[in-house]
């Protein structure tokens, strides 16, 4: 049995903020919660695995699993964030950063105990209940906003796991919860927190900003200024007040405003964007979201920039450019859109422009 202090000392050397250990047993409590949600139609949700066994049996992801080292790294950039991008957006993709840190950790453990062992690293990639494992390991508790909260760092933490066949002394879960507080439910911008611990993902703005394709008008309005993610349920949380600010160079905030995204060249995105955790969705969706934000904020100064997007090769961009122009300045947009309609070939874009024109006639 490996002493957990040995593992934690290595974590500290690598500037890992939290390191706790749990075993590889099934997540029985969460299995029951998922079954209940399935019965009430609240699960599965977008972007989630639907197989309860794969979610709640960590041993299915690693043969010979004995222990799981759960690490958490503080990403608190709440002193610098803007209204467009979630605070978790760091300059380097956190998936890559955490993976590199955990690779170093495995190498150091091997050197320290002078013994080879099997290990597999996960960062937000495997379909198991990552927050439930972290809760069982004592990294924090699952809160009413469905995020994991640590008493020292709040919910501004990235999680990563090392599955291993090493037997390591384990930690206990924390005895902590939200108490009587319901602030996040009252301030949820998307009305997605419909009950404590119950996030209806398809209503959540963070999800809407990642959703592909056409977003219905009511949901566009709900997105407000958000180009990627939403932090309202974190910003309001008392556990996040006066918490240490992240000082890691790689995890500094990717501080870009709406103009940056409206001016993105789809075929030639900047290198700095490619290293972030939002690039996987592609520039088209980021531009779409910027067009929605410009419409919601009635950004008249970008009218001409948006008008130029009616010539974009992507019908999705033309669709949102048309809508955005009409929201920013309807009278000015009307003539432009009527003229554009004569040459527009995409049926969805044509239908949207006709819908906009009909509002006037
Ligand atoms: S991210 Fe925004 S919309 Fe989603 S639950 Fe939190 S406050 Fe609500
Ligand atoms: S705002 Fe209150 S209820 Fe919501 S997660 Fe924070 S402590 Fe829990």
From TrEMBL:
Keywords, sorted A to Z: 4Fe-4S, Iron, Iron-sulfur, Metal-binding, Oxidoreductase
Keyword Disulfide bond on entry: no
SUPFAM superfamilies linked: alpha-helical ferredoxin, ARM repeat
Enzyme class label: oxidoreductase
EC number: 1.17.99.6
Gene Ontology terms, MF aspect: 4 iron, 4 sulfur cluster binding; epoxyqueuosine reductase activity
One BP annotation, GO: tRNA queuosine(34) biosynthetic process
Keyword Hydrolase (UniProt): no
Top-level taxon: Bacteria
Record InterPro entries: ARM-like, ARM-type_fold, QueG, QueG_DUF1730
Positions of the DUF1730 domain: 57-124
Pfam families the UniProt entry points to: Fer4_16, HEAT_2, QueG_DUF1730
Protein name: tRNA epoxyqueuosine(34) reductase QueG
Lineage: Bacteria, Bacillati, Bacillota, Clostridia, Halanaerobiales
């Amino acid at each position: 049995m490996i002493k957990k202090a040995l593992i934690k000392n290595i974590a500290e050397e690598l500037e890992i903020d939290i390191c706790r250990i749990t075993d590889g047993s099934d997540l029985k409590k969460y299995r029951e919660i998922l079954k209940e949600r399935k019965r009430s139609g609240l699960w599965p949700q977008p972007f989630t695995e639907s197989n309860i066994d794969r979610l709640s049996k960590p041993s299915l992801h690693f043969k010979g699993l004995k222990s799981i080292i759960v690490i958490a790294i503080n990403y608190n950039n709440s002193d610098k964030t803007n209204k467009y991008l979630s605070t978790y957006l760091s300059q380097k993709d956190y998936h890559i950063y955490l993976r590199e840190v955990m690779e170093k950790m495995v190498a150091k453990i091997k050197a320290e105990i002078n013994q080879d062992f099997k290990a597999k690293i996960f960062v937000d990639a495997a379909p198991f209940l990552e927050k439930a494992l972290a809760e069982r390991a004592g990294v924090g508790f699952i809160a009413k906003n469905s995020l994991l909260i640590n008493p020292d760092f709040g919910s501004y933490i990235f999680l990563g796991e090392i599955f291993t066949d090493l037997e390591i002394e384990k930690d206990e879960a924390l005895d902590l919860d939200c108490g009587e507080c319901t602030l996040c439910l009252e301030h949820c911008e998307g009305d997605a927190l419909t009950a404590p611990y119950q996030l209806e993902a398809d209503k959540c703005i963070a999800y809407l900003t990642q959703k592909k394709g056409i977003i219905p008008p009511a949901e566009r309005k709900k997105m407000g200024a958000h180009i990627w993610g939403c932090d309202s349920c974190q910003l309001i949380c008392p556990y996040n007040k006066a918490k240490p600010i992240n000082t890691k160079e790689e995890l500094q905030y990717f501080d870009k405003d709406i103009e940056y995204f409206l001016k993105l060249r789809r075929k030639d995105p900047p290198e700095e964007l490619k290293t972030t955790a939002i690039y996987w969705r592609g520039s088209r969706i980021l531009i779409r979201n910027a067009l929605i934000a410009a419409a919601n904020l009635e950004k008249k100064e970008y009218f001409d920039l948006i008008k130029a997007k009616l010539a974009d090769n992507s019908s999705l961009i033309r669709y949102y450019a048309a809508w955005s122009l009409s929201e920013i300045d309807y009278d000015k947009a009307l003539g432009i859109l009527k003229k554009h309609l004569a040459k527009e070939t995409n049926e969805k874009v044509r239908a949207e422009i006709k819908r906009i024109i009909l509002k006037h006639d």
